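Risk mitigation, structural track. In case the binding assays with zinc ion fail to produce interpretable data, a predicted complex structure has been prepared as a fallback.
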Amino acid sequence: MRLCALNHRAHVLVGDLAIDLEVASGGTFSSDPMEAIANISAIAKFIEDEQPQGKPFASADLTNPVPSPKQSLAIGVNYADHAAEMHIELAPEPVTFAKFPTCLAGPNDQVVLPTSTVDWEVELVLVMGRDAYQLTADEAWDAVAAVTVGQDLSDRELQFAAGRQFSLGKSCPGFGPLGPWLVTPDALPNRDDLELSCAIDGEVVQDSRTSKMIRGVVPLLVDVTKHLALKCGDVVFTGTPSGAGTALNPPRYLKPGEVLTSTIEGIGTLTTVFVAP
Ligand code: ZN
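Fallback model:
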């Protein structure tokens, strides 16, 4: 099942049509996208049982499908090739930092480039469907309501000027675009092996597979929730493969007017447009 927000209201997508959840359910389900994530199993059953009719929609109306999680975090150094290009050593525990929730954005939000050193990182993003602390391997995927495409944008100069704490340089407004919609894990071709790629103005700069993660989704959630209590609706960026701009010689960063398209197999393509401050 695919879940999205259209003008900030929760919808289910069936083919090319969108079902307004609050309207179709006569108020049983809320229009709040965060409530839809919390009730995703009941919504799937409702759609299957009732088969409500959808309406055509404009992709320009898609807004952030996870607008207000309690926590938003990201994992660094989760692909060996990216660790090597960044000259970062592998750590015994997951390298975990905040993408503070105010940095999250939707698929149609233009992202302001505050400096000339903003870099891209395409990532599979997990959206938690329940509170999760000390998950076992068997529980890990079941605790994930849905996945989406995300960009872990970074101001590289600020990231490294802030010492070993990445969170500041990765949390400017708009630095966490998500979308275009959420997909439940059962709808993916192979939830542990998805192609992910991104391109700038059509030129591919990253192309890999989630099966190349150092910690795949299951070990990642087990190791993170050993220490951290995740809440329903939280988002987890799972790391990026090689191809970041800062690792190129000379480094390349995003420029105003450029269009970044980020694609994950079985989910879709997130388009991000950059503008000058
Ligand atoms: Zn990242």
